[in-house]
Amino acid sequence: MVKIKAGVLGATGAVGQRFIEGLKNHPWFDLTSVAASERSAGKKYKDAAKWRLESELPADIAEMTVVNVDPKEVDADIVFSALPSDEAKTAEPAFAQAGMAVASNTSSYRMVADVPLLIPECNADHIGMIKVQQEKRGWEGYLTTNPNCTTVMFCLPLKPLMKFGIETVHLASMQAVSGAGYEGVPSMAILGNVIPYIGGEEEKVEMEAQKILGKFDGEKFVDAPFTVSASCHRVPVMDGHTEAVWVTMRENPTPAEVKKAMRDFDAGLKGLPTEPEVPLAVMEEIDRPQPRLDRNKGRGMTVSVGRIRPGVTGVKFICMGHNTVRGAAGASILNAELLHKKGLL
Ligand SMILES: NC(=O)c1ccc[n+]([C@@H]2O[C@H](COP(=O)([O-])OP(=O)(O)OC[C@H]3O[C@@H](n4cnc5c(N)ncnc54)[C@H](OP(=O)(O)O)[C@@H]3O)[C@@H](O)[C@H]2O)c1
Questions:
Q1: What was the pLDDT predicted at 57?
Q2: How buried is 59 (Cβ within 10 angstroms: 0-12 exposed, 13-18 middle, 19+ buried)?
Q3: Best of 9, 15, 198 for a ligand 1 pocket test (most atoms within 8 Å of beta carbon)
Q4: Would you list the domain boundaries of the chain?
């Protein structure tokens, strides 16, 4: 089988390195380009990436030369973007215009009306918008996005609860430092501490879920009719976002019914290489999920849910997942696999 050529934009960063990890032995994609800022361009990848994940870097990737984030320098059919959002705003459309598919991880286009915001287990049919986007913009390529790393962790458990008529969602996040990128949070600020503010995060979290869990009517997205209220906090955890969630639903299901709906959840996908065996792992242990113990479930793609119990109104639970895998690179790669399966690559 001829593999699809894949490039990574922002390849040297926290998410970029997870892309390299997810693509290095991929059965469908062949990593052909790594791109980063002009500080890194021209260097070998092994010299440009400032820090390393624990996993070993294959020799052929270590020796690749980093190129600039420029469609003329990137040899690919699809690019995975892990750029800072300002840079992504101009770079991503340029790649789509040049005929490439763009699977973006950044916030720049998530809420734009003709851009799908995808979680394959929740809204695979939203890829129908790609045709609309290409016609409207005159692009040969196209742009798709995956959600914010906090959004995906609570959208997955909410999906099987949609049948109960979700009315309100409240959540408090405990977000890992890797979520802010390598330069993100100074160690002097976070060690032994909690920072009760993450710029722009609550706004993203409060808007994205309705688009994802809403409908695509063939021309536009129609938001799901519930409200989200979020309080986001940075905690001294390396990887893994934990969230306390309170949900009220029109049909007022019991915690046992909620648990059963999550356990029975069948996303209807099959045969995508990055798809975990179960998207949701419902845990019975009273003190789980925990990031250190549970973030690598399903190779980092499973969201763990525990402590499903009655709230003052509705039901409350804890969910947790790997923010740079399920919340970032793994999410984009899963989206790309869906696009390929549906004949869009
Ligand atoms: N970390 C997460 O959990 C997470 C989750 C979801 C989404 N995201 C989003 O993913 C994106 C990347 O996040 P990150 O955490 O990986 O950030 P990061 O560690 O700071 O990495 C940023 C990457 O972008 C490159 N870059 C920076 N400025 C550039 C410029 N002017 N032109 C071209 N390339 C440039 C950097 O290259 P150099 O090494 O050459 O500087 C590096 O490869 C952000 O938009 C973030 O919001 C992150």
A1: 83
A2: exposed
A3: 15
A4: 4-148+328-341, 149-321
Residue 50 has pLDDT above 80, yes or no: no
Which residue, by CA, sits nearest to atom 22 of ligand 1?
13
Report the largest interatomic distance among the alpha carbons of the chain, rounded to a whole angstrom.
59
pLDDT for the residue 34:
98
Mutate to test the pocket of ligand 1, among 18, 37, 108, 146 (most ligand atoms within 8 A of CB): 37
Domains 4-148+328-341 and 149-321 share a fold: no
Assigned architecture for domain 149-321: 2-Layer Sandwich (3.30)
DSSP 291-308: HHHHTTGGGGTPEEEEEE
Structure tokens that stand for 128 in this block: 């129908």
Q: Is the CB of 70 under 6 A from ligand 1?
A: no
Beta-strand pair 215-216/101-104: unpaired
Pull the structure tokens for residue 286: 């009273």
- Fold that domain 4-148+328-341 belongs to in CATH: Rossmann fold (3.40.50)
150 Cβ below 6 A of ligand 1: no
Tens digits of per-residue pLDDT, 272-295?
999 999 999 999 999 999 999 999
- Looking at the chain, how many residues does it have? 345
User: Which atom from ligand 1 is nearest to the alpha carbon of 12?
Assistant: 43
What does the block give as tokens for 144? 């798709």
Secondary structure tally for the chain: helices H, strands E: 12, 14
Six token digits for residue 78? 């699809």
Q: What is the pLDDT of residue 335?
A: 98
